[in-house]
Amino acid sequence: MTIKRPDKRKIDELRPIEAKAGVIKRADGSGWFKIGNTVAYAAVYGPKATHLRFLKSPDKGNLRCHYNMMPFSGAGDRVRPGGSRRSKEISKVMEDALSPVLNLDNFPNSIVEVYVELSQTDAGTRCAGICAASIALADAGIPMKDLVCAVAVGSIKGEVVIDLSKEEEDIGDAVDIPIAVIPSTGKITLLQMDGILKREDLKKALELGKAASSKIYEVQKKALKDKFKGGESK
Amino acid sequence: MSKLIAKDKDIVVPGEQLAQGMEFVPGYGTYREGDNVRASLMGVLYVDNRALKIIPVSGKYMPKRDDVVIGQVIDIMMSGWRVEFDCAYSAMLNVRDASSDFIRKDADLREYFNIGDYIMTKITNVTSQKLVDITMKAPGLRRLSGGRIIKVNTNKVPRIIGKQGSMVSLVKDATGCRINVGQNGLVWISGDIEQEIIAMEAIKEIENNSHIPGLTDKIKAFLEKRTGKKIESKPKESVQNDN
Question: Which pLDDT value is given to residue B135?
């Protein structure tokens, strides 16, 4: 049985993806990632010095993420500007999703800051944010094992689907599982779940997510390489 | 059977598979993962027989011993100055290394270098924790007074200087400006105001087109157009470099 999705996508079909690198001139590295109607900008600053003792490690550099949804970005109510419990949590999981690929051993006592701004949101913001951030980190010349590809999987009306839109996410029993994958190894660096799902459906959903990560990786790779075709944008 | 997957001079991105098999040796900016060699930096791949390395195209400056850099004095300490040079780590300039003159113990250190001054300096030592020592005791090192400072990508500095300083000399001769290029990507330009702007634009032009072949001719044409003067090509011997 295949269910009808509101935008007539197949169950394993992602929304249209676009990506760019080097979109913010004054940042050390930047990325732009658009999936469907969700748009994320990421800017990387550093490695730079910090005076905050709790952020410093004498053996390696630290990563710090800032997630922010712009006030009129969503289809729903206005988001109150500034940090919230939700944005703080997402910043934290983004740090955890990106840290495993970064190698900051050569930057003791420094920090790398990543600012993620969502100018338009239609579900899957943390995933779009992670995709944009990994483009930005690579653009900033920070040593990393791989890019990170993130996508939301889940289920609507008992059927496992990929890349839920806001419309689908709001369906009564919808389950939302944002995951982030390191494409070269297939390892998962972010796994959250909102809702209740059968064990075998979760496995199925993760397989879908891993398969989609290679498609996302190709888009990210192209974005970075395109920066050097026909002159640099920076 | 070992096999090269990416090509020499390709732009590669982190995670990209460069080669398969144990015959290839991972160098700077690459790593081995199982049988494969992958990229860990974004940059241009260089294949030298079996060794693979990546020359990065972006990234902040990393202090390196013997580099000549341009820095700014940000603080005055008990026995020296703290100098910042657009990088995660600042450097310490000890009074001992500041001048060939004798500096008395009770001297006012502001008379030598004040806060906010830009200096051309040389890195003498970098520790594992990235504590940096610098010196002013080498030819050409001095306080930079007047002129202007511009910031360029530190990875493009070799192109801006050119072979034996040929590129920077071209800009110097065409504009009549004094130009100093620090390895950290700060460039000091001093001369006639209008010429300074032309020199600044020329340097930006080099930075933006650093990967294009025949860059020298392009820059020469750019300078001729902007200054309205013809540039004669000089014999190689007369090209000198004070960087």
Answer: 97
Please, are residues A28 and A37 in contact by the beta-carbon 8 Å criterion? Answer: no
Q: Does A48 touch chain B (CB under 8 A)?
A: yes
Q: How far apart are CA B223 and CA B211, in angstroms?
A: 19
**pLDDT at A214 > cutoff 80:** yes
> Shortest CB distance from B15 goes to which of A141, A145, A231?
A145
CA separation (Å) from B123 to B109, B149, B182? 20, 19, 11
**Would you call A107 an interface residue with chain B, using a CB distance cutoff of 8 Å?**
yes
Three-state SS string over A135-187 comes to: HHHHHCCCCECCCCEEEEEEEECCEEEECCCHHHHCCCCCEEEEEEEECCCCE
Q: What is the CATH number of domain B68-144?
A: 2.40.50.140
pLDDT of A112 > 90? The answer is: yes
Reported pTM:
0.92
Predicted local distance difference test score (pLDDT) of residue B229: 83
Q: Is B148-238 in the same CATH topology as B3-56? A: no
* A98-107 pLDDT, tens digit each: 999 999 999 9
For residues B32 and B19, give the distance between their C-alpha atoms in angstroms, rounded to a whole number: 9
How many residues in total does chain B contain?
243
A220 in any annotated domain: yes
Q: In angstroms, what CA-CA distances link B241 with B54, B154, B170?
A: 27, 19, 11
Q: Measure CB to CB from residue A147 to each of B14, B29, B41 and give the nearest one.
A: B14
* More confident call, B190 vs A233: B190
Mutate to test the interface with A, among B53, B58, B132 (most CBs of A within 10 A): B58
Q: Yes or no: say if A166 and A122 are a contact pair by the CB < 8 Å rule.
A: yes
Superfamily of domain B148-238 in CATH is: K Homology domain, type 1 (3.30.1370.10)
Which residues is B76 bridged to in the sheet?
B81
pLDDT above 70: residue B233? no
The residues, ordered by sequence, that sit 6+ positions from B178 with a Cβ below 8 Å of its Cβ are B147, B172, B188, B189, B190, B191
Domain count of chain A?
1
Percent of chain B with pLDDT over 70: 95
Structure ipTM: 0.89
The answer to whether position A37 is within a domain reads yes
